[in-house]
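Worked example 3 (structure in, sequence out).
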């Protein structure tokens, strides 16, 4: 390969890979420099000039003017030196132009190896600069081939891989097919960036909404949450920053045109667009649609919502193979228990019976009448002061008891200590008898909450 062919190759590479000509020229210069140094040693450094636009490679090798009769890599005869300098003197160092071809086959191989190394480093940097900040965005490409069930996609400047696990079930691509996907990640494989694509990630659906729906792109409609079973069904929660805009209508479009375009891109994936709400219960009720919720119970401890629906809508709420409730749970990040009204009526009766029994045990054990020091009148006075059970009385301050009963400090201290002794004896008795509900009974006054709500819609 001569100088012009090399320059032509570099020029084509610049256009194909989108790499700056200046960067490629510098890489070529470094490669030729390494080849020349390999040939002549590094006693004196050569000068290399590469001009891709003019198609020129100029190499200048330092040679000493000598009495030698023939030129070599280090010396040039005095008579021959006169072609490059007027009145040259012995010992002068002249930069003598040398064609690339004169360096020989070995030097050409060294130059080629160094150039490929440089180009690989440059191309790696270009790929990282181009795509590192595009992770999470949609990219377009053309299918090159199938490799071990993975699709190799050309994105223009580089290739990417669409793994089988990131493909919608049933998808098949042939060579030359156009493809859109989410740039999911960039992994380093053998020191080379491998772009990983996805068509199943929830973020891909979010980005399709931005691409296909102007209101979403402009920020008027916000996609708050996405849940998918790729290729089958998805739920998308949307809201608006403009009260005059219907976010669901904007996403669905006239006669469903907008949502249909997105669905077609996802191989017919059915997409439910629901309205997001800052109220968790309202949001869950929206998410479980098309089923209608008549009652909800919030169980805060494990972030669970019980949804009570009419008997004839249970299968609608749960969906085929549990898909509807599963997607609603993914979308809202709540654990959802769906119950039909007839079933919940029995559960509610059982819960009320348990609560009633616990309350009964509480009042039997912790009624102020169990404190023999108190008269009926004093019990009434304590209840009026908010110290209406043994537990509260045992935790009360001396000043509180003194003020409530109009007694002395000593009498108040004696009453509190008596109450504590009573409470301790009762707890020890319950532990001895193995009553596992003692803690629950003790705390019942603080945990008595109403978790039932009518359907907020």
């Amino acid at each position: 390969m001569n100088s012009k062919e090399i320059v032509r190759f570099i020029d084509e590479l610049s256009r194909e890979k989108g790499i700056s000509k200046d960067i490629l020229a510098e890489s070529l210069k470094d490669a030729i420099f390494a080849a020349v140094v390999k040939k002549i040693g590094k006693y004196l450094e050569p000068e290399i000039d590469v001009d891709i636009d003019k198609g020129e490679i100029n190499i200048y090798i330092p040679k000493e003017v000598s009495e030698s009769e023939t030129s070599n890599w280090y010396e040039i005869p005095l008579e021959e030196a006169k072609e490059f300098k007027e009145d040259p003197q012995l010992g002068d160092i002249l930069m003598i132009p040398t064609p690339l071809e004169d360096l020989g086959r070995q030097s050409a191989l060294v130059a080629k190896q160094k150039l490929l190394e440089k180009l690989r480093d440059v191309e790696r940097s270009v790929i990282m600069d181009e795509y590192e900040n595009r992770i999470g965005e949609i990219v377009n490409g053309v299918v090159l081939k199938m490799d071990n069930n993975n699709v190799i996609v050309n994105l223009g400047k580089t290739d990417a891989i669409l793994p089988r696990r990131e493909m919608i079930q049933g998808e098949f691509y042939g060579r030359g097919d156009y493809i859109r996907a989410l740039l999911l990640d960039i992994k380093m494989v053998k020191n080379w960036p491998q772009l990983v694509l996805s068509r199943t990630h929830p973020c891909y659906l979010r980005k399709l909404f931005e691409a296909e729906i102007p209101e979403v792109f402009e920020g008027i409609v916000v996609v708050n949450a996405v849940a998918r079973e790729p290729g089958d069904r998805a739920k998308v929660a949307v809201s608006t920053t403009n009260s005059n805009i219907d976010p669901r209508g904007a996403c669905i479009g006239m006669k469903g045109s907008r949502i249909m375009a997105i669905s077609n891109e996802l191989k017919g994936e059915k997409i439910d667009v629901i309205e997001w709400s800052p109220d968790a219960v309202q949001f869950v009720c929206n998410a479980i649609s098309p089923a209608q919720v008549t009652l909800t119970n919030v169980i805060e401890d494990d972030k669970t919502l019980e949804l009570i629906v009419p008997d004839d809508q249970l299968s609608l709420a749960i969906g085929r193979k549990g898909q509807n409730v599963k997607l609603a749970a993914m979308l809202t990040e709540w654990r959802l228990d769906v119950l039909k009204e007839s079933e919940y009526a029995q559960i509610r009766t059982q819960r009320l019976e348990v609560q009633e029994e616990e309350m009964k045990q509480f009042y039997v054990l912790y009624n102020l009448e169990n404190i023999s020091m108190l008269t009926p009148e004093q019990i009434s006075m304590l209840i009026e002061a908010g110290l209406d059970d043994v537990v509260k009385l045992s935790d009360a301050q001396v000043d509180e008891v003194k003020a409530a009963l109009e007694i002395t400090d000593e009498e108040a201290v004696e009453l509190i200590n008596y109450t504590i002794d009573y409470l301790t004896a009762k707890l020890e008795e319950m532990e001895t008898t193995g009553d596992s509900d003692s803690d629950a009974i003790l705390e019942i006054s603080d945990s008595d909450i109403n978790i039932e709500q009518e359907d907020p819609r």
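Notes: Residues 104-131 form the longest helix (28 residues). Residues 440-452 have pLDDT under 50 and may be disordered.
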